[in-house]
Amino acid sequence: MPIHHVGAVLARKTSENPRRCKLNPTPQAATAAYKTEPGPHRIAVLGLSDVVGFDLAIAPQIFSGARDENGEPLYDIQVCSLDGGPISTTKGFSILPGASPDFLAAPDTLIIPGTYVEGPCTDGSLSPELAGYLAGLPGTTRIMSICTGAFVLAAAGLLDGRPATTHWAHAARFRRLYPRVELHPDVLFVDDGDVLTSAGVAAGIDLCLHVLRRDHGSEVANRAARSCVVPPWRDGGQSQFIERPLPETSGSGTAPTRAWLLERLAEPLTLDDAAAHAGMSVRTFTRRFREETGTSP
């Protein structure tokens, strides 16, 4: 299968939109960063074959309930497929799209959920149909991906020279297939202005809440978060979930102190106590602990 790059889309979008890259931007940084035009903002969620069902449902769940002060919907969000047919998921069931492919023609925002579709996730290629669709998008369309949906954007050339993220478990393969992308596998999401990417699975919730906050402010985003019973903002990144080998228990570094702490779980020990036991400053102990275990003490 040939590789189809959509460099024309990338060139148009980067020239018309200044880069405003944010890695896990704070709620304050996101507020009022972007405002939609009057009327419902059209969001097309493009379901490709072997889509992750959870990822496909995130954006409709977050955006569909957003209302203005008069109770009018702020978004018109539809799930679509390129041919209008059912969308197969990775869990053995299919979903019927709620809108015809016509809705895909000129959305204000396009979202590509996580997928294991052959091509972008295997050899860096795109089908002619998908490549042609992405090439024909208006330059004003905001583009988002959730989880492995970033593979599709990268295969289209839309992430060349840009910061992005994807599921941590697929970071090595992503780097191998798309070396021109500035991958940040530790963050929950990346906001690069007109192109936004999220880390794995539930990080799509964080990205969609961020976009809702960016479009309409914290009050609307917090209301959506409460409705979904999720925190409006999560600190940290996906590095805390990355599988790592068990840290060595040698006599150097923080290993003796970690063993000492495990023997005293019932005691009200502090970070200062741990650092003192290790014979280090709190700053040095924290840094060494993170280097050895992959997480903070």
From TrEMBL:
Pfam family, one: DJ-1_PfpI
Positions of the HTH araC/xylS-type domain: 255-297
PROSITE patterns: HTH_ARAC_FAMILY_1 (PS00041), HTH_ARAC_FAMILY_2 (PS01124)
Keywords (A to Z) from UniProt: DNA-binding, Transcription, Transcription regulation
Domain of life from the UniProt record: Bacteria
MF (Gene Ontology): DNA-binding transcription factor activity; sequence-specific DNA binding
SUPFAM superfamilies with a match to the protein in the record: Class I glutamine amidotransferase-like, Homeodomain-like
Protein name, entry field: AraC family transcriptional regulator
Organism the protein comes from: Saccharopolyspora elongata
